[in-house]
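re: that chain from earlier
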Amino acid sequence: MPELLQDWVSAQAARRAESVAVVGVDETVTYAELEARSNQLARLLRDRGCNRGDRVALLVPKSPAAIVSVLGIYKADCTYVPLDSASPPSRLAKILASCENRWILAATPTACLLRDVLADHQLRAPISVGWMDAGPWSAANTDQVDFTADDLQGYSAGRLDHDNTRDDPAHILFTSGSTGTPKGVVITHANVIKFVEWATTYFGMDSSDRVSGHPPLNFDLSIFDIFGTFAVGGQLHLVPSELNLLPNKLAELIRTAELTQWFSVPAALNYMAKFDVVKFDDFPALRRVLWCGEVLPTPALMYWMERLPHVRFTNLYGPTETTIASSYYTVPRCPDDPQAPIPIGLACDGEELLVLDERMESVAPGEIGELYIGGVGLSPGYWRDPAKTADAFRPHPYRAGGSGRVYKTGDLARIDHDGFVHFHGRTDSQIKSRGYRIELGEIEAALNAAGGLRECAVVAITTDGFEGTAICCAYVPAPGAPVTPAALRSELSRALPPYMLPTRWMAFDSFPQNANGKTDRRRLTEAFEAHAAEANRQS
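^ sequence. v structure.
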């Protein structure tokens, strides 16, 4: 087992120096080049004053230079803080202020965003900027750029010693906070190493693997793409973000790159299915498809499994706070019922899944409770926020003396009689309407099975009416499908009782997505709220 994440790259550089490590749009990097360039960056950062534990932010688009940057940050004994280039400057400024970043590594495509983020001179003063490509840094309009990629050549490419240990933070990943301030989830080297070692063994990954790099770098799924690949000496193929809205191009990339592993949020798989871009017996090199982050509609899974009988399909589940994924379920055969839910399965090695009631006691098999997670993936907590950490990370209910912790996920789940865990939505997505308790995910499952839709999402808004909460359906019709709310309601009525039928409907050309490629349900909810407010004004 390596001590630190970067040790995998050093080992591969010694073992297979000229093998391809990273494939970008315009650049391919070998393990020897990746090792050398990241060593040079680490030496430069140390030379310019970076110390153990310093936070270094990354505002570099997904590219080989970005991967070099991540490794260089680790090798300088620093903590990597990825910034989402799709976020507004005000949000990124909050992250930088929270982390007290010493450095930002940036590149030409993000120059204007960087300029806006650092417009606050008080924030700008203590931060140094490194430019990781050959583009004109002057476009950022910063007071000064402290180094450019050309300066790396003056530093030794030899391996460095390190002071970090596996229990030191590797990165801080910022997620949405209910108060409007992003929460920083601290993840250690050991957290990631333990998951990667389980996953590469379970999936049988090896040096012949050609792995997709689909998620943005600020999303924790990217960590497995990167270090799962490097652990086995395979190739990481970075998927350009602009392909996310071009399902035919995503399919073509899987073919031409001869990918052996695809890992993404379900939205990408669903999108390709809805546009019917996968042929029967397509992607002959592909061995496994993995998804994580939200529920993959069963009809979309059936579409993929019917066309690719040679591929292994695995559902992974886990919040950011428990490191990439905590449970897995490899689908044994193509489902024959489009409404059949797919379990989130069993705990990964070293992880523990507990379904508990409000008294923190186990519920009986088949009963729904809240899911808690313990084990080796558990984050130390939120960055410099002991109150939020104490609220989310609770003492283990079954260990005497307060040893061990569990993470309160806010997800509803049940354990079936075979021991598999099933996801039943969020505690905050279970609503009460007309006196009935309703799980919005059940309505979505019925909609996905109905056909005629490219995408659908069910949200709820508060009303002054007798129902208290209105069920709202947002949908994107499939090309050429004559879909109307009346037709959808009629179809749903065959599967759901009347109190579960949506009362408000809204058609979209496409759904808004958040930075991680998931459907942005908050924006859909806001659209329904705005429509309701406008209707009230006119009445």
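The longest strand covers residues 405-415.
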